[in-house]
UniProtKB/TrEMBL annotation:
Signal peptide limits: 1-25
Any matching Pfam family: HdeA
GO biological process, one term: cellular stress response to acidic pH
GO cellular component annotations of the record: periplasmic space
Record protein name field: Acid stress chaperone HdeB
GO-annotated molecular function: unfolded protein binding
Protein's cellular compartments: Periplasm
Gene3D superfamilies registered for this protein in UniProt: HNS-dependent expression A (1.10.890.10)
Coiled coil: none
Gene that this polypeptide is encoded by: hdeB
Length: 101
């Protein structure tokens, strides 16, 4: 077996094992529910509205498929969440949701 073939096989095996490792790695849930209040307060303010939108509308069933509008979340919910997070910075956003409603 020549050196080029050996190197090619080694590179292919390394690439394949990297693919399998990332595919079977422990998946961590990345929903805002697990985000702490401190992480929320440290975010870029432009990112707060999408997170607040998710928190406010998650597990909420309104009649007729309604939801809380983006503008309302931006002007009302974000300040409420921020204020609640200042009181309990180590709480997770999923835990403070009932206090917002």
């Amino acid at each position: 077996m020549n050196i080029k073939a050996s190197i090619s096989i080694i590179i292919a095996a390394a690439a394949l094992s990297t693919t399998f490792n990332s595919a079977f790695a422990a998946q961590q849930e990345t929903t805002p529910q697990n985000m702490t209040c401190q992480e929320f307060m440290d975010m870029n303010p432009k990112s707060m509205t999408p997170i607040a939108f998710w928190v406010v509308n998650r597990n909420t069933d309104f009649k007729g498929g309604d939801y809380v509008h983006w503008h309302e979340v931006e002007t009302v919910a974000v300040p409420k969440i921020f204020k609640q997070c200042q009181k309990t910075p180590h709480a997770k956003l999923g835990e403070i949701t009932p206090a917002l409603k």
